[in-house]
Amino acid sequence: MAKAKARGREAELDSALERAADLLGRARFPIFGGLFTDIAGAAAALSLAETLGGVFDHASSAGLMRASKVMRETGATPASFGEVRNRADTVVVIGKGPLTRDPDLLDKLFPAKPGLPRPGDNKRELILLGADNTKTDNPKTPKGLRTTAIDGKSPLPELVALLAASLREGRFDLRDKALRTEIDETAARLRKSAFAVFVYDPAELEEPVLHTVLEMVRHLVLTTRAAILTTAASGNGDGVNLCSTWTCGLPVRTSFAGAVPQHDAWAYDTDRLLKSGEADALVWIDALAGESAVRPKGVSAVVLSANPGGAGKDDIVIEVASAAGDHDAALYLSPISGIGMVKAAKANKDKPTVAAALTRIAELIDERRAA
Amino acid sequence: MLIELRGGRIIDPAHNRDGVGDLFIEDGRIIAAPEGRTPDEVYDVTGKIVMAGAVDMHSHIAGSNVTLARQLMPELPMLAAQGGQPIPASPASWGAYATGIRYAEMGYTTVIEPAMIPTHAIEAQVELASIPIIDVAGLVILGNDDYTLELLRDGRGGGDELKDYVAWTLHHSKAIGLKVINAGGSEAFKFNDRKFGLDDEVPDYGVSSRAIVEAMQTAVAGLGIPHPPHVHCNNLGIAGNVETAVATLEATQGLPIHFAHIQFYGYGDGGDRGFSSGAPGLMEAVNKHKNATVDVGQVMFGQTVTISGDILRQFDGRRAANPKKWAINQGEGNGTGVVPYHYKKKSFVNALQWAIGLEIFLMAEDPWRVLFSTDHPNGALFVRYPEIFHLLMDKDERARWLDDLPDAAREVSNLAEITRELTLSELAIITRAAPAKLMGLTDRGHLAPGAIADIAVYTEQKNKTAMFSAADLVFKSGSLVVRNGKVVSVTYGRCYHVEPGFDAQIEKRVKTFYDRYYGADPSWFGVTDAVTHRRDRFATIPMPR
Asked: What's the complex ipTM?
């Protein structure tokens, strides 16, 4: 009985792979979206997107796109998580994103035990800029850590701009005297820091704000050490983005329809391509343990999912193994600020990985084209 | 299948061979002429030059540092192509796939990635595994990491623990050797030092650069790793730094050492502009210290991007960024600095750098110890190699280039007086035999029976740029992969590494260290066979002891 069931599943899988290959083999401009997958899955999706002349876009692209655009325009000065944890004497958390994304972030950045030797002799200090954790459900700051929360009534971009202006000791007017004092004191603290770090989620800040933060770093490094630490995008977004970059030289939201790959954060956005009708097929990949991508509504797709329960009747569904759940997976890991290997929570070889399923679809398309 | 390459001029300096003959290939290896057997395939290479596949011992082709540069500079291939460099104007041209294809077309079959970051070794290995055709190996970076510095500070650097730690790091990242980049300098940068010399000490640790290099030399020699520490010295790119390079050479205590891209250390501070060729003094020292090998790091004119774990130097170099943008990633150990750069023919400094590199090649008494590199992409993109071979092999070509340079640069360079032209055998030494030998890759770089059948066939031409841009035939492990300068079969190669062995105690110590300071588990960044789905991707090289 168990064998029959397994054979049944296999037949179902074969059929879904065949139908996916038929659909994609005919597609004029398919999107490989979602991309909540490991590096091997991303590489296989990139390869198929290249073969078919499609688009490669991740469901958490918004922040990645801004950060990479700003990087291409002016550069970047990141520090690894480990360097910030051990050596930063002033940590400025900008916005609510970082603490919302990782409620344990402050405990990780300010461990109770002393860290590695660090520059200067300042006591470590935390500044929450528009990130006041006393007014939210966010966890409290670590005991004994000097913390300044700056909120005021000003929106976040304005707070960042004020701090940048004060840092350079430029002239500016501010009616809120209390806020002015906080901003000036924070700027003074930054100037005398031995290693100041700005922590933020690029998905929360608009491009001009990102530029302003980087300008603060570039100003500080003239006399001291400074850096940024960004919150990783959900769904292994940073890992998928890196894989795209080393494969074709460009970040996600890249099209392979032309003679050379082309990146355009607006033009190759999954939602826009579906709404405009430019794309005629969608491959939706959602196969990471513990995370789920938000799928565009009203469009049928070839769905590669570890939890395909929500798939529609017009979808071609391929149930795949979950990365880090069912199989070992290379993923972007914040504690090492790079790609690491995560063991499967409970190894399960019954289902194909995203990489295996996409590789099989590619083979089927090749066979059809050769015939 | 038995393959014969018939009638070519076989250039195999490892066996003092330069003459017409036949080569036989079977099961991926070169074999002795088999008696009484008819080959299944015969390639008539009469009149052609037959060499071992080339081995690039220092080329930044993969890893988080290279991809940081790709993120900063996706326009690099387009700018390079606009400037006339031989590279397709596509961002994909410096992606992993194109890298393997172009290397193969030029006759390269093995490339060493010289700067794997230990905590990012998985990314480096996944990237390397996505490069087609060529075999690869990686050097892993230590010397600015806090574990090493802690050992040296506490006086435990001379004992087995450092050896075990080096061996564990090599094992954990599946590396073939150890890289040391501005020993102590990148760590000192984190304490806001902006200059760091050979005898300066890392703040808080009180350990000098000299002590770090010496400790690593002793550890690597003690482990019996074939490739000696691969050292990027202090004070790269600074006028007058030839003194640092010579002092570092003097400090090597007779132990084996390799100095990377020494052109960037060949600078004197003479002349009206305080910048002159230090090549004669540098080469006198290199020629004298038989324990030392070097690669050159030749510069070529045009757009490139510099990538280095020497963040102190890169931070300083940001002022010369062109285009005006830069990235300094302050990571564990060395971190990475990326600064775009445009070497200009009309620039006095750049012209002199170009001349100094060529002087170094041409002043070398022993080509087995002065190896080819551009430190891709730092001195020049690897697609420029054929032009450099041309310059080394043809003094008239050099004269033509020199005519275009600023008078001031020509006046303080010695290049015009050098008439030496490298022979094909000498070229085969610096691009094949010597790098393979130095890396411990004993099965390649030569054409004796038993060697891996990595073979490049060229049509001899006076125009060496044309000759080496497109191999007539390239065999990788016995399979034909290139014909008439174009890839005809896309294969995937192997990654070679050492396994020197270590006391298991070091794993516990390192685990405790990472847990305490980073909240991380070393298993997260340990390279296993699972990083690629290709079976037999990894292979260990034999240890001489």
From this structure: 0.97
